Amino acid sequence: MEPYVIVGNGVAAVNAIETIRARGNTSPIIVLTDQECAFYSRPSLYYIMLGRIRFEDAWGRPPEFYERNGADLRCSTTVASVDPEAHTVEIEGQGPLRYSRLLLATGTRGRFLPWADQDLRGIITLNTLLDVTNITDLLSDSRAAVIVGGGLTSIELVEVCRHWGVPTTFVMRGSHFLDRQLTREEAELIHERLRMGGADVRTGEEIVEVTGENGRVARAVMKSGEEIICDIAGCTVGVTTNKELAEAAGGETDRGIVVDDRMRTTVADVYAAGDVAQVRGPDGKPAPSEMLWYVAADMGRIAGDNMAGGDERYRKRVFLNAAEFCGVDFCGVGEIVPGQPDVETITIRDPAREGSARLVMRDGVMIGACFLGDIRLADIARGVIAQGARPSELPADHPLRLLLERRSP
Length: 409
Ligand SMILES: Cc1cc2nc3c(=O)[nH]c(=O)nc-3n(C[C@H](O)[C@H](O)[C@H](O)COP(=O)(O)OP(=O)(O)OC[C@H]3O[C@@H](n4cnc5c(N)ncnc54)[C@H](O)[C@@H]3O)c2cc1C
Hints:
Blueprint: E1 4-7, H1 11-22, E2 29-32, H2 44-49, H3 65-68, E3 71-74, E4 79-83, E5 88-91, E6 95-98, E7 101-104, E8 108-112, E9 123-124, H4 129-139, E10 145-148, H5 152-163, E11 168-171, H6 184-196, E12 200-202, E13 207-213, E14 216-222, E15 227-229, E16 232-234, E17 236-241, H7 244-248, E18 257-259, E19 270-272, E20 277-279, H8 293-307, E21 320-325, E22 328-334, E23 344-350, E24 355-362, E25 365-372, H9 378-387, H10 399-405
Parallel strand pairs: 1-2, 1-7, 2-3, 7-19, 9-16, 10-11, 10-16, 11-12, 18-20
Antiparallel strand pairs: 4-5, 5-6, 8-17, 13-14, 14-15, 21-22, 22-25, 23-24, 24-25
Helix pairs in contact: 1-8
The structure holds flavin-adenine dinucleotide.
Flavin-adenine dinucleotide (FAD) binds near residues 12, 42, 127 and 291.
């Protein structure tokens, strides 16, 4: 029996394996990953560097997972190409391997900014366990860091540098941190916390060059001409999908690999799931990938089910992104992009917790909620959004009705 081959070993891949087996399918499964070890949680990398959890707490499944599920895990193994006619993948340095069905769960990689020589010691990103080793190694003898970007990974890097006592400049092009999810006022709370912790927050700025001395990062130059002496530079902004295998095999790609709601690519017997995949929407266009853990897991389950002969379809859930920034809990649910023209926004400030709740309505129906500080109502808000409910029609003692009564003038 030709095996199912899975390229990648992230959360999409392991959920596919579990679902294939849950359907009682006994086909051999071979997992090929250029990762050096078994599946681990990427969101945990940050907490490892803060010393809040140990390496071994980041394993996403117990060590016996692969054996128990009859999956042959081959680490440090890179797939170079796919030949859909021959139904083979070409393994770098090893040759072809046949598949009956193939899942591409290849995720993303950091997009390095062009002005930094990536070979300089001190250029960092955060995506893998190897990055954790590299960063902690560098931090032990660093004097100053510059971190570029206004997103989640960037602030995690800033926090890690602060935790290690390395003075850090946080440079972002936008007007504020996480500007696709937070308003300026909300972000100011985070900026303030960062500054209190010693970080130098620069908004509306850009790094245009990073130069080195003796192979190590030495300074970063900002658009304004100001130079920052540093020996660490976090130089990734956003991510690029690892879509090349599908692209070269003739599959349809956009920002990622385009799939239907059964996670089938346009190439026969080839599926894609997780951060690398973009599901075609009802309008036929590939929807932007949300690149979140639960989304990748959902897609992996759907891919596994369909590979094993099922007929499950992917249904997008209401967006939910939860994190902690500088000790402030954050949870964004649904549509919360600030400044949308056709929405009504209601903000409830919570001075006791230094936080706020922002509820976003369109035509009286709740479509988004952004919580900072107290995030306990986030799941309830998600349910209300999923139902398309109007807060004004919720029972009088519903927590969201009670929250709305505390709205700020
Ligand atoms: C630092 C960090 C923090 C995050 N925090 C959060 C969070 O708080 N909440 C949240 O929802 N999401 C978070 N995410 C995003 C989340 O981790 C991803 O959505 C999720 O890991 C995607 O899983 P995946 O299975 O699609 O891909 P990945 O986990 O990226 O796995 C891709 C796999 O493909 C393999 N691969 C790629 N190309 C090849 C090839 N040619 N040959 C062989 N193997 C290959 C890689 O080795 C890897 O095993 C975070 C991500 C990072 C990096």
